[in-house]
Design a protein that fits this description.
The protein has 118 residues and is an all-beta fold. Helices cover 0% and strands 55% of the residues. It has no helices and eleven strands. The chain has strands at residues 3-7, 10-13, 18-25, 31-39, 46-52, 57-59, 67-72, 77-82, 91-99, 107-108, 112-117. The strands form two sheets. Strands 2, 4, 5, 6, 9, 10 and 11 form a seven-stranded mixed β-sheet that branches. Strands 1-3-8-7 form a four-stranded antiparallel β-sheet, with no helix packed on it. Strand 5 (46-52) and strand 6 form a beta hairpin. The radius of gyration is 14 Å and the shape is globular. The chain starts with a strand and ends with a strand. The mean pLDDT is 95.
């Protein structure tokens, strides 16, 4: 069993930066992709960025060129560096760990709130 704990959210002005961290406790060899999702008030949860075990990354079009996802395998931690933040980036950011097999449920963190003021 794995627990994901996010940190680093907060209030920032438009144009500013934040760095989110997701620390994973425990181990699960079936995890192959880690990622960040976000949910704005009244909206569905959406993909922000993912990073595979081989280091391959994927980003939502809305954050390309502004956000960078990375992982430190030694620390079991995934990061999301967010630059040039916009008010539309406001939301609760959730850490996600996808399993290698479709019949296994994902792991999710509790989320961390990011608020970008205009």
């Amino acid at each position: 069993q794995v627990q994901l704990v996010e940190s680093g959210g907060g209030l920032v002005e438009a144009g500013g930066s934040l760095r989110l961290s997701c620390a994973a406790s425990g181990s699960d060899s079936t995890i192959n992709t880690m990622g960040w999702y976000r949910q704005a008030p009244g909206n569905q949860r959406e993909l922000v960025a993912t990073i595979a075990s081989n280091g391959g990354t994927n980003y939502a079009d809305s954050v390309k060129g502004r956000f960078t996802i990375s992982r430190d395998n030694a620390k079991n931690t995934v990061y999301l560096q967010m630059n040039s933040l916009k008010p539309d980036d406001t939301g609760v950011y959730y850490c996600n760990a996808k399993r290698r097999y479709f019949y296994l449920s994902d792991y999710w963190g509790e989320g961390t709130l990011v608020t970008v003021s205009s």
